[in-house]
Amino acid sequence: MLKIIKEKHGYSYDYIRKSIRGDRTGIICDMIKAEYKRLDNEYKIVRESQAKRLRDEQSKL
């Protein structure tokens, strides 16, 4: 997820991490933090749906 944010905005990994942790403050940091949370939620949804699909496939065997 950090890579996606880095490629989209061009900030360093260090700046992105500090923004997410709250070590940096400001509008851009808030935007980075919100985008990270959104991406994290989307990742969790995809991961859970893939896990469910795999469980369903295993139960059919």
Summarize the structure.
The chain has 61 residues and is mainly alpha-helical. It has helices spanning 2-9, 13-21, 27-60.
Describe this structure in words.
- The chain is an all-alpha fold.
- The chain contains 3 helices and no strands.
- The protein has helices at residues 2-9, 13-21, 27-60.
- The radius of gyration is 16 Å and the shape is elongated.
- The mean pLDDT is 94.
Salient structural properties:
61 residues, mainly alpha
Helix content range: over 70%
Oligomer: single chain
Shape: elongated
Series of H and E elements? HHH
User: Major sheet, described briefly?
Assistant: none
Q: Write down how many β-strands occur, each being a DSSP E stretch of 2 or more residues.
A: 0
Please identify the structural class as seen in this structure: mainly alpha
| Strand content bin | under 5%
- Contiguous runs where pLDDT drops below 50 for at least 5 residues: none
Total DSSP helices: 3
Average pLDDT taken over every residue? 94
Reconstruct the topology from this structure.
Blueprint: H1 2-9, H2 13-21, H3 27-60
